[in-house]
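Hi C.,

You asked whether I'd gotten around to modeling the 232-residue construct. I have! Everything is below, sequence then structure, no commentary in between.
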Amino acid sequence: MIKAKNLYFKYEDDFVLKNISLEIKEGSFAAIIGANGSGKTTLAKHFNALLMPAKGEVLVDGIITKKDELNARKKVGFVFQNFEDQLVYSVVEEDIAFGLENLDLNNQDIKKNVYEILKELNISHLAKRNVNTLSMGQKQLVALAGVLAMKPKCIVFDEPTTNLDEKNKKSIMGIIRGLNKKYSMTIILITNVLNDLKYADNVIVLKNGNIIFSDKKSKLRNKILKEARLYD
Protein backbone atom coordinates (compact mmCIF):
# COMPACT_ATOMS: atom_id res chain seq x y z
CA MET A 1 0.00 0.00 0.00
CA ILE A 2 2.82 2.40 0.87
CA LYS A 3 6.11 2.44 -0.97
CA ALA A 4 9.13 4.66 -0.59
CA LYS A 5 11.75 4.63 -3.33
CA ASN A 6 15.19 6.10 -2.69
CA LEU A 7 13.68 8.74 -0.42
CA TYR A 8 15.86 11.60 0.80
CA PHE A 9 14.67 14.49 2.94
CA LYS A 10 16.52 17.38 4.50
CA TYR A 11 15.90 20.22 6.91
CA GLU A 12 17.89 23.16 5.57
CA ASP A 13 21.23 21.62 4.55
CA ASP A 14 21.16 18.43 6.61
CA PHE A 15 19.69 15.20 5.28
CA VAL A 16 17.64 13.52 8.00
CA LEU A 17 16.39 10.70 5.76
CA LYS A 18 18.84 9.01 3.43
CA ASN A 19 18.04 6.61 0.61
CA ILE A 20 14.94 5.13 2.27
CA SER A 21 13.29 2.33 0.32
CA LEU A 22 10.50 0.29 1.90
CA GLU A 23 7.13 -1.28 1.31
CA ILE A 24 4.26 -1.54 3.79
CA LYS A 25 1.60 -3.94 2.55
CA GLU A 26 -2.11 -3.31 2.83
CA GLY A 27 -3.62 -4.79 6.00
CA SER A 28 -0.29 -5.17 7.76
CA PHE A 29 0.79 -3.86 11.17
CA ALA A 30 4.22 -2.26 10.85
CA ALA A 31 6.26 -0.66 13.61
CA ILE A 32 8.88 1.96 12.84
CA ILE A 33 11.29 2.13 15.74
CA GLY A 34 14.41 4.10 16.50
CA ALA A 35 16.05 6.33 19.07
CA ASN A 36 14.98 9.95 19.41
CA GLY A 37 16.17 11.91 16.39
CA SER A 38 16.46 8.86 14.14
CA GLY A 39 13.90 10.22 11.65
CA LYS A 40 10.80 8.17 12.56
CA THR A 41 8.21 10.93 12.57
CA THR A 42 9.80 12.69 9.60
CA LEU A 43 9.49 9.47 7.61
CA ALA A 44 5.89 8.90 8.70
CA LYS A 45 4.85 12.40 7.65
CA HIS A 46 5.81 11.46 4.09
CA PHE A 47 3.19 8.70 4.12
CA ASN A 48 0.28 11.14 4.12
CA ALA A 49 1.98 13.93 2.19
CA LEU A 50 2.61 16.23 5.14
CA LEU A 51 6.21 16.28 3.90
CA MET A 52 7.58 15.80 0.40
CA PRO A 53 10.84 14.10 -0.58
CA ALA A 54 13.84 16.16 -1.58
CA LYS A 55 14.76 13.20 -3.79
CA GLY A 56 13.00 9.94 -4.55
CA GLU A 57 9.28 9.36 -4.18
CA VAL A 58 6.52 7.98 -1.97
CA LEU A 59 3.50 6.12 -3.34
CA VAL A 60 0.24 5.55 -1.46
CA ASP A 61 -2.06 3.05 -3.15
CA GLY A 62 -0.20 3.80 -6.35
CA ILE A 63 -0.60 7.57 -5.92
CA ILE A 64 2.66 9.51 -6.08
CA THR A 65 2.41 12.01 -3.25
CA LYS A 66 4.30 14.71 -5.15
CA LYS A 67 1.70 14.58 -7.94
CA ASP A 68 -1.52 14.23 -5.93
CA GLU A 69 -1.04 15.03 -2.28
CA LEU A 70 -4.75 15.57 -1.56
CA ASN A 71 -5.88 12.09 -2.62
CA ALA A 72 -2.83 10.48 -1.06
CA ARG A 73 -3.67 12.19 2.23
CA LYS A 74 -7.22 10.83 2.16
CA LYS A 75 -5.80 7.30 2.22
CA VAL A 76 -3.65 7.76 5.32
CA GLY A 77 -4.85 9.14 8.65
CA PHE A 78 -2.39 10.44 11.24
CA VAL A 79 -2.75 10.51 15.03
CA PHE A 80 0.03 12.75 16.31
CA GLN A 81 1.99 12.34 19.51
CA ASN A 82 0.61 15.73 20.59
CA PHE A 83 -2.92 14.61 19.80
CA GLU A 84 -4.46 17.55 21.69
CA ASP A 85 -3.35 19.75 18.79
CA GLN A 86 -5.74 17.80 16.53
CA LEU A 87 -8.81 18.81 18.54
CA VAL A 88 -10.36 21.78 16.74
CA TYR A 89 -13.82 22.21 18.27
CA SER A 90 -14.71 22.28 21.95
CA VAL A 91 -17.61 19.77 21.77
CA VAL A 92 -16.62 16.15 21.08
CA GLU A 93 -19.18 15.29 18.39
CA GLU A 94 -18.51 18.58 16.58
CA ASP A 95 -14.79 17.92 16.58
CA ILE A 96 -15.25 14.44 15.12
CA ALA A 97 -17.49 15.90 12.42
CA PHE A 98 -14.93 18.54 11.40
CA GLY A 99 -13.11 16.48 8.78
CA LEU A 100 -16.35 15.14 7.33
CA GLU A 101 -17.66 18.67 6.84
CA ASN A 102 -14.62 19.35 4.68
CA LEU A 103 -15.69 16.43 2.45
CA ASP A 104 -18.99 18.17 1.69
CA LEU A 105 -21.15 15.36 3.10
CA ASN A 106 -24.73 16.16 4.00
CA ASN A 107 -25.68 16.61 7.65
CA GLN A 108 -27.47 13.27 7.87
CA ASP A 109 -24.43 11.30 6.65
CA ILE A 110 -22.13 13.27 8.94
CA LYS A 111 -24.27 12.53 11.98
CA LYS A 112 -24.48 8.85 11.03
CA ASN A 113 -20.71 8.55 10.64
CA VAL A 114 -20.04 10.36 13.92
CA TYR A 115 -22.54 8.14 15.75
CA GLU A 116 -20.95 4.98 14.36
CA ILE A 117 -17.44 6.04 15.33
CA LEU A 118 -18.48 7.06 18.85
CA LYS A 119 -20.12 3.68 19.29
CA GLU A 120 -17.17 1.77 17.84
CA LEU A 121 -14.74 3.40 20.28
CA ASN A 122 -17.20 3.08 23.17
CA ILE A 123 -17.25 6.84 23.80
CA SER A 124 -20.86 7.68 22.92
CA HIS A 125 -21.29 9.04 26.44
CA LEU A 126 -18.72 11.75 25.63
CA ALA A 127 -20.55 13.13 22.58
CA LYS A 128 -21.77 16.33 24.22
CA ARG A 129 -18.76 16.85 26.48
CA ASN A 130 -16.30 19.72 26.20
CA VAL A 131 -12.97 18.29 25.11
CA ASN A 132 -11.18 20.42 27.71
CA THR A 133 -12.88 18.43 30.48
CA LEU A 134 -11.65 15.05 29.20
CA SER A 135 -8.78 12.95 30.46
CA MET A 136 -5.70 12.45 28.28
CA GLY A 137 -6.89 8.98 27.32
CA GLN A 138 -10.32 10.29 26.33
CA LYS A 139 -8.81 13.13 24.30
CA GLN A 140 -6.70 10.64 22.40
CA LEU A 141 -9.78 8.57 21.57
CA VAL A 142 -11.55 11.69 20.30
CA ALA A 143 -8.54 12.50 18.10
CA LEU A 144 -8.60 8.93 16.81
CA ALA A 145 -12.36 9.15 16.21
CA GLY A 146 -11.84 12.23 14.05
CA VAL A 147 -9.35 10.31 11.92
CA LEU A 148 -11.49 7.15 11.70
CA ALA A 149 -14.52 9.17 10.61
CA MET A 150 -12.63 9.98 7.41
CA LYS A 151 -12.45 6.23 6.64
CA PRO A 152 -8.74 6.03 5.75
CA LYS A 153 -7.19 2.77 4.57
CA CYS A 154 -4.20 3.30 6.84
CA ILE A 155 -3.52 5.10 10.12
CA VAL A 156 -0.16 6.25 11.44
CA PHE A 157 0.13 6.45 15.22
CA ASP A 158 3.04 8.60 16.38
CA GLU A 159 4.19 7.32 19.78
CA PRO A 160 0.60 6.83 21.02
CA THR A 161 1.51 5.63 24.52
CA THR A 162 3.87 8.46 25.47
CA ASN A 163 1.51 10.67 27.48
CA LEU A 164 -0.68 7.92 28.97
CA ASP A 165 -0.75 5.93 32.20
CA GLU A 166 -0.45 2.14 32.11
CA LYS A 167 -4.21 1.54 31.96
CA ASN A 168 -4.72 3.87 29.03
CA LYS A 169 -1.60 2.58 27.28
CA LYS A 170 -3.04 -0.93 27.32
CA SER A 171 -6.43 0.35 26.20
CA ILE A 172 -5.21 2.39 23.22
CA MET A 173 -2.90 -0.37 22.01
CA GLY A 174 -5.78 -2.83 22.24
CA ILE A 175 -7.92 -0.52 20.11
CA ILE A 176 -5.13 -0.07 17.56
CA ARG A 177 -4.62 -3.82 17.32
CA GLY A 178 -8.37 -4.30 16.95
CA LEU A 179 -8.49 -1.92 13.97
CA ASN A 180 -5.87 -4.05 12.28
CA LYS A 181 -7.34 -7.46 13.13
CA LYS A 182 -11.06 -6.69 12.84
CA TYR A 183 -11.04 -4.36 9.84
CA SER A 184 -7.72 -5.28 8.18
CA MET A 185 -6.72 -1.63 8.44
CA THR A 186 -3.09 -0.93 7.73
CA ILE A 187 -1.40 0.29 10.91
CA ILE A 188 1.93 2.10 11.13
CA LEU A 189 3.15 2.50 14.68
CA ILE A 190 5.95 4.99 15.39
CA THR A 191 7.61 4.13 18.69
CA ASN A 192 10.79 3.85 20.71
CA VAL A 193 9.15 1.52 23.25
CA LEU A 194 10.33 -2.04 22.69
CA ASN A 195 7.30 -3.49 24.44
CA ASP A 196 5.05 -2.01 21.73
CA LEU A 197 6.65 -4.31 19.15
CA LYS A 198 4.60 -7.25 20.42
CA TYR A 199 1.62 -5.87 18.50
CA ALA A 200 3.42 -5.56 15.16
CA ASP A 201 3.95 -8.04 12.34
CA ASN A 202 6.83 -6.22 10.68
CA VAL A 203 9.49 -3.90 12.05
CA ILE A 204 11.52 -1.13 10.44
CA VAL A 205 14.48 0.12 12.46
CA LEU A 206 15.95 3.56 11.79
CA LYS A 207 19.32 4.95 12.82
CA ASN A 208 20.44 8.44 11.83
CA GLY A 209 17.96 8.57 8.97
CA ASN A 210 18.92 5.18 7.54
CA ILE A 211 17.05 1.89 7.60
CA ILE A 212 19.21 -0.73 9.33
CA PHE A 213 16.50 -3.41 9.50
CA SER A 214 13.22 -4.03 7.67
CA ASP A 215 11.65 -7.46 7.99
CA LYS A 216 9.34 -9.67 10.01
CA LYS A 217 9.43 -9.08 13.75
CA SER A 218 10.56 -12.66 14.33
CA LYS A 219 13.84 -11.90 12.56
CA LEU A 220 14.72 -8.88 14.69
CA ARG A 221 17.72 -9.50 16.94
CA ASN A 222 19.19 -7.66 19.92
CA LYS A 223 22.26 -6.85 17.84
CA ILE A 224 20.15 -4.56 15.65
CA LEU A 225 18.48 -2.95 18.67
CA LYS A 226 21.87 -2.27 20.24
CA GLU A 227 23.11 -0.72 16.99
CA ALA A 228 20.04 1.54 16.98
CA ARG A 229 20.76 2.51 20.62
CA LEU A 230 17.50 0.94 21.80
CA TYR A 231 18.94 -1.87 23.87
CA ASP A 232 21.75 -1.85 26.43
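If it helps when you're writing up: The mean pLDDT is 94.

Thanks,
B.
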